[in-house]
Specification:
Blueprint: H1 8-29, E1 33-41, E2 44-52, E3 55-63, H2 67-71, H3 76-92, E4 100-108, E5 115-121
Parallel strand pairs: 3-4
Antiparallel strand pairs: 1-2, 2-3, 4-5
Amino acid sequence: MSAAAPSRQARSQRAGLRAEALAALVLTLKGYRIVARRYAAAGGEIDLIARRGDTVAFIEVKARARLDDARGAISAQKAARMARCVRHWLARNPWAAGLTLRCDAVFLAPLSLPRHVPAVLSLAID
């Protein structure tokens, strides 16, 4: 008896986990320390939270067939959900309040080097 083929959702989830692991490796090599992975709250999710020096970066990871497609995959709705999630995380991690906070992205595509883009979104957390 053969096992059923994984569903599209399962394949997508595994691909997302691989992309996040690769993004975490890239950031670690750049001197960041991963503080949290897949932080979910307030109807949103932050793929990675990383710290380097006095900066905490909330990182969206996007993997697509082409880097240009990955760059365009962060919608205004996603940015708003991410901002709510950042506020939630900050309320539970007051140690970060005095640090520089920003929203970064890591874009991934086959046959391309991963691209880390600092401050890809403005962080409106008021």
